[in-house]
Write a structure and sequence with these properties.
The structure is a homotrimer of 212-residue chains. With 212 residues, chain A is mainly alpha-helical. Chain A has one domain. The first copy, chain A, is built from eight helices and no strands. In chain A, helix 1 crosses helix 2. Chains A and B meet through helix 2 and helix 3 of A and helix 6 and helix 7 of B.
Chain lengths: 212, 212, 212
């Protein structure tokens, strides 16, 4: 019984994980096609967008090789996502909301994964939140730098901020002694909701520039 | 006798290795001079073009420090190549074919080196081919990103594709039980020929964009 | 008594270290504000400018996680520096000379830190100087690439060259058997002075391009 629960639990997390990977890969492939890259370029940008954040986190903590070298499902998910984007370029626009849904879910999920990696190394909460943000956001940063645009998360969107806020939620819940599963569910939901609401209502960070 | 053969074999591989490094360094130095970088900038771009792919591969598999920190021949080869480019800028244009020859040979050689590094870690063939492609191509990617251009291999050239095809050759030959030396010679030649023919006949990957 | 001296010595080095970090963070924050990044973007660029060089060096030598994951003073210094830049944007211009002073001191200090990391791994002097230059200069390179400009140190300024020259001073002094403390003080001063003089007198590397 416990074993079955564990199986379900693992499959459930795996589904979120691969959905997030797929959503990130789609965002990479779409960006690469806008810049008219070739087949190989599109796949590579999809791959670094999806796996770059986790890989950079692993490099920073001295964890190598990264998991995608052992588990072929990651590469396969990226490959299939890229193929779908190339075949259904025009229709993808209509799935904007579906994509945002999975992208936001992935953002929350990867933030918490990064935080828990930091905790397993006994790092300071601030560094754990940093690792969560790196895991969730830096695939997009590498995508934007490769495509010669200033990373979008540095400019106007509530993106990294949602990860940081979710991380603060996480440690606040842990501090007040919440149950482990609840901590995860609530923190992932918090990132997810902040990102969704920010896009829907076009929310931004306070402007650090004085109006001219 | 065996010892002498081994010596010859090592020197032979070393010659290909350093020739490839030199060709990659020249391509980096030429690109840096086109952007009017200063002396230091030209050398650094030549260095990252030549060593970046192997260094990134080593970082990914947790192999550090990279070999160029122990074997000074790498840095020396890059230095001499850069100096030659700076002294003979105009004449370099006339050696276009010679450069293509060594660049393509380096491409094949570094692909197979990357694949064999992956095999030594018991990684999946797909990951081995990935590591081969990273070794051969990502020096050029780092060069292009540093010089603020979208990496050329993401755009139109048969470059990474030649590495991937060569990697497939490699594993096909291994599968059919070919002799180890033959596997290497044929795979390196395959990458070399595909790259040479692609440049000479201006071959490209199929266009993923519908004509307007 | 020895203990007190040691304490003073450590605090002294720590003060230079954190002053250099602060100066680099300020240069990152100023550059990010020129590109109109948002709050998060400004902080991240300040952070990678200040910590990027040392982190890249640590990745290259297989030393992970980097020190800023354990010592919260680094992140705090970057945070406070960034905040000051945001609050006093206009006044910062008036502190140009103060900033140059600390930036140059940081440059010298980080160069020698990098060299000594290389020595502790028994690396070749040339590689030690390379590690020193990476430590001191590559934060700025990552800053410039993230902000989509060709790295300034590749173009015209005596910056990396000051680190390399300081490194050569270091090994020359060691060779002639100078006392360890003196070696450090003189090498740091050499980098500091070269950088200051280069900015004040607008010195540049010899031009590798023939005049048209």
């Amino acid at each position: 019984m416990t074993f079955i629960c564990l199986m379900i639990d693992i499959d459930y997390l795996r589904l979120i994980d691969l959905s997030g990977i797929a959503a990130f890969a789609v965002s990479g492939a779409v960006a690469a096609m806008r810049k008219r890259l070739d087949l190989f370029g599109i796949f590579i940008i999809a791959f670094v967008t999806a796996m770059g954040g986790g890989t950079l986190r692993d490099l920073l903590i001295g964890e190598a090789p990264p998991v995608w070298m052992f588990d072929m499902w990651y590469g396969l998910t990226v490959g299939v996502s890229t193929l779908i984007v190339m075949l259904f370029t025009r229709q993808i626009e209509n799935f904007r909301k579906t994509l945002l849904f999975f992208d936001s879910l992935g953002l929350g999920f990867f933030t918490i994964v990064g935080i828990e990696v930091g905790l397993s190394l006994n790092l300071h909460p601030v560094i754990c939140v940093t690792l969560g943000t790196v895991t969730a956001c830096f695939g997009g940063v590498i995508r934007d730098i490769s495509l010669r645009t200033i990373p979008v998360i540095f400019q106007k969107e509530v993106y990294a901020s949602a990860c940081i806020a979710g991380g603060i939620f996480y440690f606040a819940f842990v501090y007040f002694g919440a149950d482990d599963t609840w901590v995860k569910v609530v923190s992932i939901s918090a990132v997810f909701l902040m990102r969704m609401l920010a896009v829907i209502f076009d929310l931004r960070l306070p402007n650090p520039y004085r109006s001219a």
